[in-house]
Design a protein that fits this description.
Keywords: Membrane, Transmembrane, Transmembrane helix. This protein is mainly alpha-helical. About 80% of the residues lie in helices and about 0% in strands.
Length: about 600
């Protein structure tokens, strides 16, 4: 059968196109082989390209989800909304009272009733373990304190005694809720509210005996709050407010007594000393109880610091009042000395419990020493004569620290000895006549001997292990301060003796010149003796102290004497410094050679007798 001409032309066209495509494919294969790429397989060519996806920021999503999860678990929005509604009701009552739509007394009663209801609902919510319990309890405590202050101060519709009693009752109720359900928030807010609100009532002219009752209760509640949770911040705030109010009472009363003015009734002059004694006993019992029953963990720093703060501040306040009123300060000093001995005895009793490290004993030892430092000058009637007694206390505590294995007691002994020496030096420097008093050579000499013996004892008996020294002063370098105290006290003893000799042998016109240079001679001679002793004992610590004393002598000679002295005393001052420097140079040179000379080998020493 013959083909149609058009069909034949179509077939021919398709054949030519197929040939062209074959040629094109061949060219593409050549190009791909030249570029190093393989020919894609049909399967690979058929594989679809991955679709482009837009991934969200996973970190932001995680953070936001975490925040939302926390807010949900903490019932944050629920608590915030509840707080707002409770605040709205309180503001409605306040607005009605301010606009005289209800009587002021009625508004105050309704406000305090509303606050009491919130506290009661908070207690019930704690009982049913509701997440809204803290909101109701906290709102009630804060509103009650605020309403009591405003009702008494602004509207004068609540008398003083019911106002204070309401604050005490609020704090007590919140403490009961906290202990009943083992929650810290109610007692903390109740204690802070009664403390701050009590101080704010009638400030700055409160009736201090009533205010003292509120602060007395607040300190007790602060102790019980610390038994639930470690909250030194709460106790520090309550203590600070208490001391501030007692200080205000003391200063106002003392200023009136000094100026012989009439004391107003709100100061209650007959109650201040018994009140101070009551607070002193309270703080002592709270600190002792906190040390004996510390609860979980270590004894808090507040309980360790409270005995010293208590004794120092309250005795100082009592001394100021007795002095301003013209009372017998010697009797006060004797009473304080007896109390100081009692505190030291309490420290011995605490150490006698034979617990490891004698916890708490250092707190009462430091408190007893601090009280003795304040009371002994009143008891002796002369400041310098009381200082050797402190040195004896310091050495006794150092000795007992070894028996008790308590590094804190040893540190207290260092501080007390340093105080005795510094107090003597400052007193004699400020009172020029006392520096030459022969009577003061006795306390200066005693302090020098005791401090020197304590230094030698401390070098013989190192600090106990696992103590404060292991953390801060493993090498017991602080004991060098005892040697410096001994040298300083010995200098003032020699200074008083030289004063008497020069006063008898030198004319008055040359006294100041001779006395000033004689002090330089004492310093230079002490430096030379120290360096010689250090060289004989091969003691680097003594050597370093000798160098320090030499530097002090250099400043005294070349800064003070060279520009302020003249004549033979100046010549003697410069000569003694030069002599001391020469002797020390020889000692240090031989020390250096001795250190650089190698020790003889055992084989050499053994071979010499055989030869």
């Amino acid at each position: 059968m013959a083909r149609d001409p058009e069909q034949a032309a179509r077939i021919e066209q398709l054949g030519s196109e197929l040939s062209a495509l074959s040629a094109r494919v061949a060219q593409l294969e050549l190009l791909l082989s030249a570029s190093g790429q393989g020919v894609p397989t049909p399967a690979a060519a058929a594989e679809p390209a991955p679709a482009w996806r837009s991934y969200p920021d996973q970190a932001d999503e995680d953070v936001s989800e975490e925040i939302l999860d926390w807010a949900g678990k903490a019932h944050l929005l629920t608590r915030v909304s509840t707080l707002c509604f409770l605040l709205v009701l309180a503001l409605v009552l306040r607005t009605l009272t301010d606009n005289r739509m209800i009587d002021t007394l009625l508004g105050s009663v309704l406000g305090m009733g509303y606050a009491a209801a919130l506290m009661a609902i908070g207690a019930w919510r704690y009982h049913v373990k509701s997440p809204l319990a803290p909101i109701f309890a906290a709102s009630g405590a804060i509103l009650m304190s605020t309403i009591v202050v405003e009702t008494h101060s602004r509207f004068a519709s609540l008398p003083l005694v019911p106002a204070y009693l309401t604050l005490i009752a609020t704090g007590g109720a919140m403490a009961w809720v906290s202990y009943r359900y083992q929650r810290f928030l109610p007692i903390s807010l109740g204690t802070l509210g009664m403390c701050l609100a009590g101080a704010a009532i009638d400030y700055p002219h409160p009736f201090f005996p009533y205010l003292s009752l509120v602060l007395f209760a607040a300190n007790i509640l602060g102790y019980f709050a610390a038994q639930l949770k470690s909250c030194s911040w709460l106790r520090w705030i309550v203590l600070a407010v208490t001391l501030a109010m007692l200080q205000l009472w003391t200063v106002r009363l003392g200023m009136l007594q000094v100026n012989h003015q009439t004391v107003p009734a709100d100061l209650a002059a007959g109650w201040i000393l018994p009140t101070l004694a009551a607070f002193a006993l309270l703080f002592l019992l709270l600190a002792l109880t906190g040390i004996l029953l510390p609860g979980p963990g270590r004894v808090s720093r507040f309980n360790l610091a409270l005995p010293t703060l208590n004794t120092v501040w309250l005795f100082a306040a009592a001394g100021y009042l007795v002095h301003s009123s013209g009372g017998n300060t010697r009797v006060l000093g004797q009473v304080g000395t007896v109390l100081a001995l009692g505190l030291l005895g309490l420290s011995v009793w605490l150490a006698g419990r034979r617990e490891k490290g004698a916890p708490g004993s250092s707190a009462f030892a430091l408190a007893g020493a601090a009280l003795a430092a304040l009371a002994l000058p009143f008891a002796f009637g002369k400041f310098t004569l009381s200082l050797p007694a402190l040195s004896v206390i310091a050495f006794s505590l150092a000795f007992m620290s070894r028996e008790w294995q308590n590094g804190g007691i040893r540190a207290c002994a260092y501080l007390i000895q340093i105080y005795a020496s510094l107090a003597l030096a400052i007193y004699l420097q400020l009172h020029g006549d006392a520096a030459g008093d022969v009577v003061n050579t006795v306390p200066a000499g005693l302090i020098a001997l005791i401090a020197l013996y304590q230094y030698q004892w401390c070098r013989q008996w190192p600090p106990p292990s696992s103590s404060v020294f292991e953390r801060f002063d493993a090498g017991d370098l602080s004991a060098v301060s005892l040697l410096l105290c001994a040298l300083a006290s010995a200098f003032f003893m020699a200074k008083a003796g030289i004063f008497q000799l020069i006063a008898m042998a030198v004319p008055a016109a040359e006294f100041s010149n001779t006395f000033g240079c004689s002090q330089s001679i004492i310093i230079n001679g002490s430096a030379a003796l120290l360096m010689g002793f250090a060289y004989l004992k091969r003691n680097k610590e003594l050597r370093n102290v000798a160098v320090l004393v030499t530097l002090i002598g250099a400043v005294k000679v070349f800064v003070y004497d060279l520009f302020g002295a003249h004549g033979v005393p100046l010549v003697a001052s410069v000569f003694t410094f030069g002599l001391a420097a020469a002797l020390e140079s020889v000692a240090l040179g031989r020390w250096q050679k001795h250190r650089e000379t190698p020790a003889a080998l055992p084989s050499d020493s053994a071979a010499r007798p055989a030869a």
